[in-house]
Each structure stands twice: as structure tokens, then as C-alpha cells.
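Dear colleagues,

I hope this message finds you well. In preparation for our joint manuscript, I am sending the Glycine cleavage system H protein (Aeromicrobium halocynthiae) sequence together with its predicted structure, so that both groups work from identical material. I would be grateful if you could confirm receipt.
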Amino acid sequence: MIPEDLHYSEEHEWVRLDDGIAVVGITDFAQDQLGDIVYVDLPDVGEVLEAGSVVGELESTKSVSDIFSPIGGEVVARNESLDGAAEVINSDPYGEGWLLKIRPSDDEPTAGLLSPEQYTSLVSS
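The corresponding C-alpha cells are as follows:
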């Protein structure tokens, strides 16, 4: 199930704009591919991110995977609750398993991202 109200990156991150702040997480497809997530490494609040840059890591029982920033901007929050409970990303990737909140540096932060339909095509091919 791919939520219709989100924007997606080709690296399997999602973005939801909420009062001008971008909430970022990984997709259900990504968490499923990774398997049981046991650790997450996120950038610090105040860090300025470039769209497409590696900003952290997800460690699962299968592998370690980079987290890419789908948009550019400043980190205004990180999901601290994941520090001791990274498995929440597996059980609720679009809710409690969010990763970062970013104040976008661009007026149209989601312009380069995929629509739900485009993302569905990406993961089903």
C-alpha cells in the first residue's frame, strides 16, 4: 500500500509537507527489503542537508543501507524515539517510524520527487 498523500524519492524515502516542514521516512517497500531494522543513525538537528546526499544509515539484520535526503534544507527534528526502538520503522514506516523533519531550503521542495503513481511503477518493475 503506497499512501497517496506523500511524495517519493527513487531511493525509497517519502516526504509529507506539514505546515511548511517536510517529514521524511522510508517507504514500506524499503523497510520490507531491509528486513528487521535494529539501528538508525540520523543527522543532528541544525544540520543543513543537500537533496540526494547521504545523511545517515539504517542497519538491519541483513545489511547496512544509506539514508538519502530527498530534499535540501535544515534538520529541525529527528525521531529520537527510534534510538532504542528502531524496529518501529518496520511496523509503522509512514507513522511513528518517521526519521527526520526538515525545513526546506527550496520554495518547491517536492518538485523533483515522484508521485505515488510514479513510485508504484518504480517498485513494481
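For the figure legend, we might mention the following. The domain at 7-107 is CATH 2.40.50.100 (OB fold (Dihydrolipoamide Acetyltransferase, E2P)). Residues 77 and 118 are 28 Å apart (CA to CA).

With kind regards,
E.M.
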